[in-house]
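Researcher: Before we compare anything, I want clean individual predictions. No alignment, no superposition, just each chain on its own. First chain goes here; please echo the sequence and then give the structure tokens.
Model: Echoing the first chain and its structure:
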Amino acid sequence: MLKITLQYYPVSFDVAFLRIKQEYVVMLHYKIAFYGHVVFSIFALLAGFTQFSKTIRTSYTHIHRAIGKVYIYTILFAAAPTGLLLSVYANGGWSSRLGFCLLAVGWIVFTAIAWKALGEKDYTKHQQFMIRSFALTLSAITLRFWKYVIVFLFAPRPMDVYQIVAWLGWVLNLIIAEVLIFKYIRK
């Protein structure tokens, strides 16, 4: 993910994915949303990975809280809202746009519920919704994984790939999250 992110620096609007988005990169709000999403999503991924360490969570609670704040604030105030804006311009037509829109809304809702549960000292609920939130955060990785697998196995048209990964990249993650929650937390 870091390698994918670094290809956009120094800032250029004619590299990688942006090459096929030239009709949108002329719009200032698209440029801001794109770079905001790229930058802050990396922070959310990195912060999220640390939050599931039992050692950090129990022995270094101050670190868990500090990194957790970075994760929550990054998602709620930058990565997810910019992702929502970008979903309007997603490749693959209305199906892809809807898939990415629901991903962004779910990311906001699950993260906000987890944050609210923390304020209510409902740590079980907090943990359940953070798992859901991180499942959606991981869509940045799984979406690309599925894209490569689908292209390798089936060689479909590019827009068909977007229509598939716009959903597969996060729905399967959420199903896995629900299984984990049911198996380990609700018991």
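Researcher: Okay. Second chain, same rules.
Model: Second chain and its structure:
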Amino acid sequence: MKDITEARHRLRGLFNIAITPFAADGAIDFTALAANLERMLAVGVDGFLIGGTYGEFATMSAVERAELFRRVIAIVADRVPVMLCSASADPREAMELTQLAGEIGGLPMLTPPFVSEVTDQQVVDFFASVGPLSRTGVMIYNAPGVGITLSPDVIERLAEQPDVIGLKQGDLSPTAIDRIANRLGGRIRLFCASDLAFLGPMMCGFDGLSSTNSCGLPELILASFRALQNGHAAQASELHRLWFGVREMARKFGQPQTVKAVMRLRGWGGGSVRAPLRDLTEEQLAALDKVLQSVPAEWRPT
């Protein structure tokens, strides 16, 4: 993407949150990553989110993240838009990665600073300082599990900034979703941050979904999303119900380790997670495999 206008235009649909496949020695397996991205493109995803929470960005150095950004942009070659998570506990690192993401044609996505007792005004000022660093604009990442949770009031203030073009909303409480959808819809692009519960936000008028579990069940999750996108809510709900057991496992065992395990069970390069996360145990893997077999075979083709 060359500028903010193009980024805003292309920012919609299902964006696959690509897991970062780590080899046994902890290095990023770029061969597996490339294969995973090509598989998602073949299925028909609308874009990618790279190095997000479930991409395990917090366990990677700034150098690793920069290399990951460049490699992915080269592989995808602008066939679909790419969000690049530039969040960091160090605001200086966040700014450097945000500038890099925009320079290479991605859309930087970042959280507010991970600082205790940060005020609403300081959050607004931070985005005002970092936004102009990216020629493609920036996307707000409201992640309740990472740092602070942004209130609808603060999000509305951030949406007034000219460089803010989108929001990935992780607080999926009905009141927050209702307000954001009706007050910000059409002003900035709105993405539901979780495929575990995306039907509500999309029905309220959100523009897109970022999906980790589509790494393991791309055919089914994309079909459910497309059904809802095309106005077939009942069909979307029925398809979403088919992988409820996998969602329960993801909530119980955690993401991204469950998603990586599903990928390995399907013969794909999910790789391992990095500490402090741990890969699923043999017992957990057996339980997951049993649940995965309950998904109709047509939605997990070999």
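Researcher: What stands out in the second chain?
Model: The chain has one domain: 4-230. Additionally, The mean pLDDT is 96.
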